[in-house]
Amino acid sequence: MLHYRKRLWITMTVLWMLSLCSLPGASAKELTFGMSAAFSGPTRGLGVEYYRGIMAYFAMVNAQGGVKGNTFAIKAYDDGYNPGPCVENTIRLVEQDDVFALLNYVGTPTTTRMLPLLKKFEDRHIYLLFPFTGAEPLRNQPYGRFVYNLRTSYFDETRGLVDHLVGVGRKRVAVFYQADAYGRNGWDGVRRALAENGLEMVGEAAYKRGSSWTDDYSEAVGIIQAAKPDAVIMIGSYAASAGFVRDARNLGLDVPLASISFSDADNILRLLSAEQARTGNDYTCCLLFSQVVPSYEDVTLSGVRLYRQAMEAGPPMPPAELMNETYEPRKYGVVSFEGFLNGMVLVEMVRRMGDNPERNRIPEIMSSMRDFSLGLDERVDFLPGSNQGMHSVYYTIILNDRLVPLRDWQRWRK
Amino acid sequence: MRRLTLFNKTLFFMVVVFGVIAISTSFISSWQLNTYLTDEYISKAHALARTMAESDLELMLNRDAAAIQSRIDQYLAIEGVSHVVVADSKGDILAHTFVPVVPENIRAMLHDMAAGRSLDPGSMTPSDVVSKNGELHVTYPILDGMIGYVHIGMDLGAVKTFIRSAVLRQQGMTALVFFGCVILAWAFVSNISRPLGRLQEYARRVAVRDYGAVLNIDSKDEIGELAGTMTAMTSEINDLVEGLEDRVHKATAQLLQGKDDLERKVEERTSELSRTNIQLKIEIAERKVVGEALKKTEQKYRSIFENAVEGIFQFSQDGYYISANPAMARIFGFNSPAEFMSSVNGGDQKFHMDEEVRATYMATLRESGEVKQHVYQLRRVDGRVIWVAENARVVKDARGDVLYYEGSLEDITMRKDAEDQLLHQAFHDPLTGLPNRVLFMDHLRMALERSKRREGYLFAVLYLDLDRFKIINDSLGHDIGDSLLKAAAGVLENCARTVDTVARFGGDEFAVLLEEITAPRDAIKIAKRILEEMSNPFNLEGNEVFTSASLGLVLHTDKYTRPEPLLRDADTAMYRAKEMGKARFKVFNQRMHDQAIQLMELETDLRRAIEHVELHAVYQPIVALADYSVSGFEVLVRWPHPTQGLIMPDAFIPLAEDTGLIYAIDYRIIEQSCAQLITWREAMPGKFFAAEQPMTLNLNLSGKHFKQPHLLQRVEAILEGSNLPAQVLNLEITESALMENPATAGDILAKLKELGVGLSIDDFGTGYSSLSYLQRFPIDVVKIDRAFVANLEEDRDSQAIIRTIISLGLSLGHKVVAEGVETMGQLNFLKEAGCQFVQGYLFSKPVSEETVERILHDGGTIQPGQRLE
Question: What's the burial of B692, exposed, middle or buried (CB within 10 Å: 0-12/13-18/19+)?
């Protein structure tokens, strides 16, 4: 304990000294980044936690005086996880708020819809940084060149899940997905991964975006159950995925249910635990989550320790005008952890810009980001021609009401 | 109200016209709108599909599902678009907007389309399909279908809604015009009908002779003219009517006078008639009351008659049926009483089985006027014969003349059948169907009576049982046993003649009463035939079963008066036949009779002897050849009979076994000898019976004990009571007794052995036992039968047998005792053969207790040739 704290102090001190060194000659100003995410509706947990995660790091950096006098701020708007508002928010952020870059967008249907705007604003050098989505359009042309992703893609996640499931003999895979670009991307990923294994999807069922935890998913469960799957991969929001898990277990579908990083495992655990306590049924068994960040419980990683330290301080909540619905923030979570890591890369990017951060230097700086450590096992590495910094997929399961890393795939063998 | 009829007609006409207009315009405009809007939707869908297909070529080529999805999601916001599907050239879906799954019909359509394309590459053009559930489906190929297809579904529900509202608006307009026309029509019609109404009112008043009414219509039209003409006409009518009225008045006065006179007369006549009428009414009421009462009574009895279960009938003196109820018809097999009566009175069918019985019945009825419970058989119309019971009596009138006969008839067939069956069961054996003992005895009794009455009437009784039936039954099972009994019954019935009675007495015992024989040899012939047939093998359920019968025959039946002794003698004869070796017959004769009597007397004596403790034990020493010491004594029983002298066991033990007296005898002897043993043990402590290897007392045990479960307890109780060590007792069982039922015998021997009692197998070599039994039974001693010993000096076979028994016994660890040793030659042979123990007159006969004591006193050894008595 003492040892960790000591290291932490050293890190903090170094950071503080760096900021001191950069003070002379620096024109102190605030860099504002634009964020559009769901702060209302059934997906608001993602927007809030993602915001808190990055703000935790910003708060840390700002407390040291920022980078060469530049402090970091976020201008956030609520899009409720809907494409229309997301487009409007983006226009407002660029034209009205004149943000430095777009940052921490949440959701596939929302971000894929606003992508053409980046092309439109090409001459103003507006880039989208580290959105919370693994969808392909953000990684492919024509718009991929305006986007920088930190997290790995949904294709990587779904391929990882499918390869592992097939590896333990679960060859009949069905997909429960959101009827939009996000769901379609995951669906496509599963289909491609299955095809690589010479298999086909045995069943699929979609649900409408915006469905909440309290909605009834038994029709979808019935359709999937009829296909007799060995495993189901859920490409959905955490609310819908948790609802699906609840109804699947209630209707006797007891195969492993897997979900990807977008369906925030922490929020799924929160919903299912409450339901478990209410009804006495076991809902948290046989659930599998693919993650794009390592477990925040793994305190052997210095990045994790830094994150936990920052979260202990209690990062700021989003502005009150966004918080119209009650939300109980989590102390730690995969989403806020990812947000925190985004913050680290962003601050590094600004740092590398030196005294005068400018938008048009973003591609140049990002492509210089090679083999950069965030205090994790994997290092950030933007390969030439690639707009994605990390590629690892992590798998977690629920054990005794906690998310823990999956150690042995054999327990899932059919 | 009347005024409105004109208006009503107009209204009706207008409703029809407007209705037709409204309906036809609705149809026409909705059809027009539908065609127009559907075309509109199709072109909208085409436009959308084209946009998608042509603008996003790159997305399609990349197969970027998420990007495609992002595009098609936007189309859903466009009014009327219900779904969008993008599929590749093979019909595989790249993206779609369905929740939760793509409907089966759409999926099938995509695949059909893909299949069609591959057949004819150049033929693809935009196509539209209106599917059944009100959806428009438009397909647009991307690059002639090479890259894929865009499918757009339009929901025609919106079109329908639009058409509905358009038609509603139109109908509303029509309705407004309609109501305007109605108001106009009402105003017009009321203008014409008001003066017409006034004219009508005027005409009505004239009709009731109100000529003073004034009509004021001054219009210049057709109605005004009509009013003027009517006023002139009215005044003329007025004058005419006044003249007429005057004349009528006068004539009326004259008529009135005449009428008054007439009325008075009529009044007088009427009052007279009404009195008579009342009288008649009273009479009619009375009659009605009486009639109803009669009807009720009649109904009551008719119901009984109609619904009775018994047939009820009336017939005339000459036998013609006058009436019959439905039950009567039913009993005779007819559907209705009418059918019954026409058939029975027509005489075309005979219903009575016996016309003579019917004639007697009719005669009795005529003479005594009544017949009760006349039971007879009827042949129904369907030919079935039934039993009925009939009661009838005569019905006479007041003067005593016969009117008819009436009575009832009951179908008692079922009762009769049941009685017959019960009767049969009481007198027959259920297994074979043969008469049983009761019926046989009855027939026998009748035969005895007949022979008393008729000179020269001869009959014989034959009694038989099957040899070895018990073995067959036990070994092959009761089913085979039963089948054998049935087969045997068949043989007997076959051999006997029809006049004879074959009966089964139970078990395997049968009896045959041979009647009307001409001479005793007839009976013997039949007996021989039965024996012969019985000795043939029976094939029972695949098993070939061999048996035979032993027959007893009583031929001279004239000296018997009662059936029981006769049967007993037949039994005796059969028993004798069995004794003589089975499968033969024996005729009962005087000697047998005497023997039977003798045996009975002996039995009585034996009972008394047991009761008075006349039987006593004697002891024959068993000598060990090694040193001529006495190793034990065999206890034998003796019966000193008061008149016949000393009787040996051979003479009374079989009788005792047959009568069950053997148990008493054996237990008595065991108890006696044990008591004696105690005395000897106490008198000579430490020696002989009390020695460490004590002398034994060998007691003979009848084979009957194996059927008596008390044996073990009795032996145990005796041992316990006398406080003797068990090994001083040695029970001897003959080999043949063991062989009768080896399984049970084995069990009991094992239990006796557990008590510690020694066991000997007696008379070994005579019981046809398999040598393996020697090993199987837990015996200690083998006693060689005296017959072998007696013959051994002359017979080499006997020598060989003795040698074998001795070596076998020794090798199995048994003691071997030779019985009946009388000469030195025999002794020497036995000694040389290795026999260890002997018993016989050469040493000692069975001797009394006193002699035993003397032997022991002298040292307990006997030299060969000492021949103690």
Answer: exposed
